[in-house]
Amino acid sequence: ADKIIIDTDPGQDDAVAILLALASPELEVLGITAVAGNVPLALTERNARQIVALSGRTEVPVFAGCDAPLSRPLVTAEHVHGKTGLDGIALPAPRLQLQPRHAVDFIVETLRAQPEGTVTLVPIGPLTNIATALQRAPDIAARIRRIVLMGGAYFEVGNITPAAEFNIYVDPEAARIVFASGVPLVVLPLDATHQALTDRAWVEAMRALPGRCGPAVASWTDFFERFDREKYGSLGAPLHDPCAVAWLIRPDLFEGRQINVEIETQGEFTTGMTVADWWRVTDRPANALFIRNLDRDGLFALMHERIARLP
Ligand code: BDR
Ligand code: CA
């Protein structure tokens, strides 16, 4: 199995991503690291523990990481995810302790302890923890197998500003460090993830699953759908973050190009933009596989099949 660390700011779509990973034998989740993003860290780490407890996989450790971006105040997204970040269903207090170690220490120590090139990082929130690890321990860059992240947008552009996607916008300095790290990157931007819209039949099939995880997914996506319906008039909730996990399991469901992507940190209107050289008009070297399209039905069939395996 592919060893992964999920770095996350749950988030209903983060929650589905985590469940998808925990239900998939192709992946070995070494740990889950929480970061401030959709809501402050105290909530994201608690939400992460609730999700892991829900999955029954309480042996998977959860760590708390950075509580603010590298050099900016935190911007949150309660307008999308609700006050707790995981609104939609009331979950019991998590039966899972937070690990005492800082998430960044866990990331660094795990990468040093595991054989070189065997651990994939899967960031689905702002990149603060990952950038901090790379800054503190530059030796880990060569040890990371690859980074498969949800973030950015190019043709579809922004969901938090006209030019920027939330995860990159919250900590563009961190994103710049990650995109300049030389680690192979796979980027799932809004261009792809806005194709990953739930539909009624899928949500009702989740709700009808016999365990507790399926109905939780249905309640989360129902809550999450409101924002996109009001904002974009689209039907369905975009399951952004599960795309990153799904790429690891079924890369054949996705298509993109190996291109250069730079992060705007200074723009008057474009801070946090992922400037993607899709048409290769520069000679800047490619640093990312930038995903543009996905097989929507294949993706949802995969998520159904996997979440049905959970308690
Ligand atoms: C990203 O921002 C968050 O609100 C979601 O969880 C996802 O990671 C989408 O822009
Ligand atoms: Ca997220």
TrEMBL record:
The keyword Glycoprotein does not apply. PROSITE patterns: IUNH. This is Nucleoside hydrolase. Keywords: Glycosidase, Hydrolase. InterPro entries: I/U_nuclsd_hydro_CS, Inosine/uridine_hydrolase_dom, IUNH, Ribo_hydro-like. Pfam families: IU_nuc_hydro. The keyword Plastid does not apply. Residues 4-300 form the Inosine/uridine-preferring nucleoside hydrolase domain. The lineage of its organism: Bacteria, Pseudomonadati, Pseudomonadota, Alphaproteobacteria, Rhodobacterales. GO terms for molecular function: hydrolase activity.
